[in-house]
Amino acid sequence: MMEEPIRVMVVDDHAMVRRGLATILKVFDDSSGGAGLPLQLAGEAENGAAAIRLCGEILPDVVLMDMVMPDMDGATATRAICEKYPQVQVIALTSFKEGDLVKTALEAGAIGYLLKDVSADELARAIRAAHAGRATLSPEAAQALVETSNLPPVPGLDLTEREREVLALMVEGLNNTQIAGRLTVSPSTIKSHVSNVLSKLGVSSRTEAVTLALRNRIVS
Description:
It contains ten helices and six strands. The chain is α/β, with parallel strands linked by helices. The protein has two domains: 6-148, Response regulator (Rossmann fold), CATH 3.40.50; 161-215, Arc Repressor Mutant, subunit A (Orthogonal Bundle). The longest helix is centred in the C-terminal third of the chain and has 15 residues, at 187-201.
């Protein structure tokens, strides 16, 4: 039996962005689009005020909310939707990663904060997570939030996916040549990745990097 889809409303003042998001949702409109419940475009709005009105009419499961829009911004609309329709989950989806904006969106009730360069798979996972009541923050948003809170930065948030893979293999005790063989790239490429990892973690040796990674659970 076909499972009920997660109904998603898209809010953005740029028609091209709305069209792009609608296209992404259509890719995941059945179970073949990936693991989890299918997704379905429920409606579109071009600003915050329209989003609040439409939300009351269609009651979507999840709203993808742009933060910077004319007339009424995303945070104001998010707060109104979360107060009026607490069963609706809102994900902030924006081009801006400033800490104050992240904080404002979360305080307004958003369950997630993603940047618009997120991949289709990551967006689908975040929508399904929101529907299940789980939060999703992009690494950039999490880092900005930490910096805004004047807390010590969490090490490793700015590592790329490849750098995390390299770090994980460093934790396993592999040297550059062995890592290059595992990832089927050249040793010089791995040397560059290792250098970036050490720089981003603020350490001067592989041993320090491994210790920091284990202490802060940067890699599983």
